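Title: Prediction job returns without error message
Component: structure pipeline
Severity: low
Priority: P3
Assignee: unassigned

Description:
Job completed but the reporter wants confirmation the result is attached to the right record. Sequence as submitted:
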Amino acid sequence: MKPFKRILLSVILIIFYVGAYANDIQVSSATLVGQDVSAGANNAANFTFAQFDINWSNSWRVGTGPNNWDAAWVFIKYRIEGGTGCTPGAWQHATLNGAGHSITNNNGIPGTITPSLDGKGVFIYRSGNGSGAINWDQVMLRWNYGADGLLDACNVSIKVFAIEMVYVPQASFYIGDGASNNGQFESAISGTPFLVTGEGALTLGGGGAGSVGNNNRAGESAPQDDFADATSVTLPAAFPKGFNSFYTMKYEISQEQYAEFLNVLTVTQQLARHGATIVNRYFNNATTPPTRNGVKCMVLPSGSTPGTYACDLNNNGTANESDDGQNITFPGLSTMDFLAYLDWSALRPMTEFEMEKIGRGTNPAVLNEYAWGSTTIHSTSYAALTNGGAGNELPNSPSTTVGNAAYSTTVNVGGIQGPLRVGIFATASSSRVVSGASYYGAMEITGNVWELVVGVGGLSGRSFTGVHGNGTVSVAGFANEDFWPGSNGNNNIAVAQVTPNNGSTSFAGIMFRSGSWAETAYMRLSDRAYPGWTGMGGRDQRMGGRGVRTAP
């Protein structure tokens, strides 16, 4: 038996919520062990185990209130380096088995590993209620390398990626907060918040009993829904409405996460997803970090050799120093950048219904509320940062009584002028309101960057069926999942407003919500002032987002 080459994994740092600095989850000591070829030489049933350690602080699981837990979404990329009959190639997504995973040493905290049904990854989380640090050694994930077409003698490198998630359980919830402006959802007859009680088809507009209305008003300049009191459309049962359980990223995509994504792409894909054509340049060849975006092309892609990308917020030419902004939210994503990252990580975009559930949970809607459940927000500039760009970056003088958020009043007045570190307002003693947390523990739903979500205001968005990314992007570097807004699925939609894939400048179906570091408007949880937006073709320093995954 010829064993797989054992490769020491590059540590991928992913950030975490409840704790002093919320950025300390680590994967380390990864290798391949236990190759099994008992099914026969080069059989599709042959497998091996990816073994690694994972740890993070302030994990939780609660059986009351939100009744949820935090988890790590873990997936593996591999690259063939050589071997008899094996052709070296680009990084690929590993197929994991539906069972047979384990934690060798849980250090006294039992853990559960739940694989996805499509084999693209696993969720790892604590088995029982409790809180505190997780330190699990020799986690074993069964990789069905034979099913991925690898021969027994192939030498491979692997990278294990972990993204912090929170579980959102199945439950009814409200959309809309009772406000009468900015397009909020409502019960069509009463004008009160609408209760979502299942995943069945809904009627949008038309003014009838049981239908979902909105507050788009005649004469508003913002692009509007294609339904109104006099016009109804159907939101199909397949569209994810948020009633069923799902996982959401705890944070918006960070700069380190995006840099690591770039580093496993091909040359063509890298050029599509970063755009620097000159070495030592930032997004779109900027010579200095635009709006605190420190992702930089350190080695230019050349010929068939991919480039190298890293964080260099201080612009001194030395990558990934302690103050280089790895844990700052990534600003400046185009719709195609965003969707490509989600496809590559085997997640999917969230819908605007799901966003309201993440924020509000099962609580009654509060008129004009933010994602932390109250109507008050800090309204004084933070002026500057302590340890700016570092993993313990902190704002000066945050509120200790009302909700904190990165928006124009707090960060665009003074010397910051850009988004902040993810989870920045959470401390060991901060409340949900002061930390700016959603009902289920997701951070920065309000402010920091606009969140790109699937909207229901046009046919392209309503055609979304919740298909997950498959771990790969197209040769050209684009997401290519069926019926994702702006991607090739829309080729099946005969509607003039859609100009499908790839590199399109029209993205009917994707909208933005929740406010950003650059504005004061549309920050409330239920605000949806631009539901019919189709102009998301280029990169915008206010835009970012996070992915979700339907629970197995």
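Comment from assignee: result matches the submitted record. Residues 26-165 form one domain.
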